[in-house]
Amino acid sequence: MRVLVLGSGGREHAMSWKISQSNLLEKLFIAPGNAGTAELGENINLNPEDFPSLKSFCLKQKIDLVVVGPEAPLVAGVVDYFKNDAELKSIAIIGPDKVASQLEGSKKFAKEFMAKHQIPTAAYRSFSSGDEAEAKAFLATLKAPFVLKADGLAAGKGVLIIDNLAEAQEELDAMLSGKFGDASKTLVIEEFLGGLEFSVFVLTDGKSYKVLPVAKDYKRVGEGDTGPNTGGMGAVSPVSFVDNTMMEKVISRIVEPTVRGLNEADFTYVGFVFIGLIEVQGEPMVIEYNVRMGDPETEVVMPRIKSDFLQHLKATAEGRLAEEKLEISEEFATTVMAVSEGYPGTYPKGKEISGLDKLKEVLAFHAGTKLLEDKIVTNGGRVIAISALGSSKEEALSRSYAGIKAICYEGIEYRKDIGFDL
Description:
Number of helices: 12
Number of strands: 22
């Protein structure tokens, strides 16, 4: 098979790494990719949201399968573009269509979906620009902390958790006035849920499904879960507090109603469902849906999949996922993210990375890197995820941290407590 992976982050590197192991693979392309994906296939300088250019490339290179990594092209309708074009219809694509992608692209849409299918989640109401007085009145009925969510995509910055009511009301005004552009001109206010968070990933062909390894990620930039939210500073899989009893509840109360709801809906959902969950007094509740794999969770999920991932994706695209046997390793996987100084605020780029040739017993998944002449340099806030497997969580973490200490670039930062709370 000739495969095109869309995206440039650690998620796409990890997926490309797993796809590259398949006997089904003839040629792998990554658009635009990074310095790490360049070692697995051919990087293509294409914007995943430039659909006409994608079409031209796919036809020229006789692509068989497109795997969409990030959410932006899905929300923009890349699946619809392929399905509605006579020349592209024969090319399989992994990802939901534009309407289905609102599960991530619109918090209001996702909440309404959960309510319709009786999927447990926090109580909420949605408001639009012009509803400020009503929104503030509802906010005053809730207990602190207060949760405000921009309805649309806001580059991971659209969720605010605020302890003070007056400050929350000020932020409400700012959001409805366009603090996050059009993304926050509608917002969702919901009750705060306190508990332990974890992530469940589902691959579905629209009818049947497979549950991928469960993971927990660490969003805050600082040790002890302090500081601002990031795209993710590390992850662990499996998750100690997610036992068989908890997973039975997740499957029966959340995964199966979600897949049934997708199957009944008037849209096409072929791809991944990322379910962000929280355990509240022993019960799982949904915080959010994403319509793609998570990052950096993918960097611990992919190493634990033993079976042929590309074969699973092919079967998913062809509606035959029920026939597949997903094999999961019993080993623990951990990843620690090296980031740029200043992240998640402003940060420099172009810092030369050394030590990659010294890595042992780890997988280095590039997140924000690029090739500059014959050097690998930083090209993002999150730079490299150092993943490792081990017979215990402690062994895997020891390897991840030994690996991250072996690499060097100016301003390198990372959390030193990933997985220590499990």
